[in-house]
Amino acid sequence: MQSETMEKVKVNEERCKGCYLCIASCRKGAIRLSGRTNKRGIVTVAVDQALCVQCGVCYTMCPDLVFEIL
Ligand code: SF4
Ligand code: SF4
Known about the structure:
Blueprint: E1 9-11, H1 21-25, E2 31-37, E3 43-47, H2 57-61, E4 67-69
The structure holds iron/sulfur cluster (2 copies).
One iron/sulfur cluster (SF4) binds at residues 9, 26, 28, 30-31, 47, 52-58.
């Protein structure tokens, strides 16, 4: 049986430019600020894997290909 918190979406934080379109577009509210800063000085985002339903909207919305659906 799969654990509810298994990794569903990978986040390549170094690619993030901080537009936060993903946070606005995730209907499950699974994307939040990570509290981490990447090398570009951007506060990155993180996916709550327990809330994520792997719909792929973040993958489609992100202009910088930060998300990988697993
Ligand atoms: S849409 Fe992509 S670039 Fe914009 S904040 Fe989200 S992860 Fe970062
Ligand atoms: S795959 Fe869907 S539910 Fe999961 S973080 Fe992306 S937009 Fe949200």
